[in-house]
Amino acid sequence: MLLVVFSASAIEVKFGDLIKAEFKISTVTMIEHGMNVTYGVEAGKYRMVFASQSQIPPNAEETQGHFTGSIQAIDDQGNVDRSFTAGLWSREGTT
Fold this sequence. Notes:
The chain is mainly beta. It has a single domain, classed as Single Sheet (N-terminal domain of TfIIb). It has strands spanning 24-31, 34-43, 46-56, 64-75, 80-90. The chain is elongated and about 45 Å long. It starts with 23 loop residues before the first strand and ends in a 5-residue tail after the last strand.
């Protein structure tokens, strides 16, 4: 006989106010199965925001895929906030 017990807990996360920003691409590096993109911006309370993502297209037309990456922001007090990113992307033509 096998007894399996699962336990779960939840943590409430409050993100605060949204900050709108337009990132500028720093580099695009082609890799064997996609590309790596790095970009940055100054936004809201953050004096420096840096991000990098790897974008991988699973289809031959390279019109959709997934990405993973990270973002780091330094606010005007010198505090660092970090986060990991993951998601899906798609394109139509050059958009």
